[in-house]
Amino acid sequence: MGPIDYLVVEFPGSRMTGEGLPLLVDLVDRGIIRILDPLFVKKELDGSVAGVAIADLDKDGTLDLAVFEGASSGMLGQDDIDEAGGVLEPGSSAGMARTAVVAGTATAVSNRVSRRQADRWSQQEQQQAYEAPPPPPADDMDTKIDQLRQLGELKTQGVLSEAEFEAQKARILGS
Fold first, then answer.
1. Is 153 helix (H, G, I), strand (E, B) or coil?
2. What radius of gyration, in Å, describes the C-alpha atoms of the chain?
3. Domain boundaries in the chain?
4. Cα 23 to Cα 16: distance, rounded to the nearest angstrom
5. Confidence class of residue 12 from pLDDT cuts 50, 70 and 90?
6. Residue 42 phi, psi (nearest 5)
7. What are the residues whose beta carbons fall under 8 Å from the beta carbon of 88, sequence distance 6 or more?
8. Distance from C-alpha of 144 to C-alpha of 170, rounded to nearest angstrom
9. DSSP letter, residue 64
10. Are 3 and 100 in contact, with CB atoms under 8 Å apart?
11. Dihedral angle over CA of 36, 38, 44, 46, nearest 10
């Protein structure tokens, strides 16, 4: 078993739906993590923090946390609960537990994530290489033609030298 730490997931306004529970159970079932000492805490509006007994998160009449029954190591104490309560907003609840990464899993997951990210970057680069730039909008071309006409008139009137005219023309056509 790898390093042991604790996880705190806040539920603002104490709105716990149980939607994330299947994801957590999946990680446990696949042997990626172990859950020790699952607990729910609530921070009251006055700032006090207390443990909360929740048996049915999704209100379907079954004990949703039965999968973690007996997962107590005794390592999660009141000091951990108080520390978690320190980051909770008043009136919110949180699920917390000691978690342990199963040995070798973190490296395997990290490598898989790195490979997926590299594949995505490669695909993006390939797409960018094959995509031709879009043609300039018609409005933009009309604007450039008008600017070139005005520039020509200024040159004809002697306001611009040949070098100034060429520099401005290059700027307009380059934009």
1. helix
2. 32
3. 4-109, 138-174
4. 14
5. confident
6. -130, 135
7. 10, 41, 43, 49, 94
8. 11
9. G
10. yes
11. -10
Residue 4 dihedral angles phi and psi, to the nearest 5°? -110, 130
The pLDDT of 5-19, averaged and rounded, is 75
Q: Please name the residue that has the structure tokens 């009251």.
A: 44
- The three state secondary structure string of 74-118 is CCCCHHHHHHHHHHCCCCCEEEEEEEEECCCHHHHHHHHHHHHHH
- Rounded mean pLDDT, 122-134: 69
Distance CA 161, CA 97 (A): 77
Q: How many residues does the chain have?
A: 175
Backbone angles phi and psi of 59, in degrees to 5: 60, 35
Give the side-chain half-sphere CA count within 13 A for 3: 5
Q: Which two tokens stand for residue 57?
A: 């998160």
Q: Where are the beta strands (DSSP E) in the chain?
A: 4-11, 33-43, 49-52, 93-101
pLDDT at 45 over 80: yes
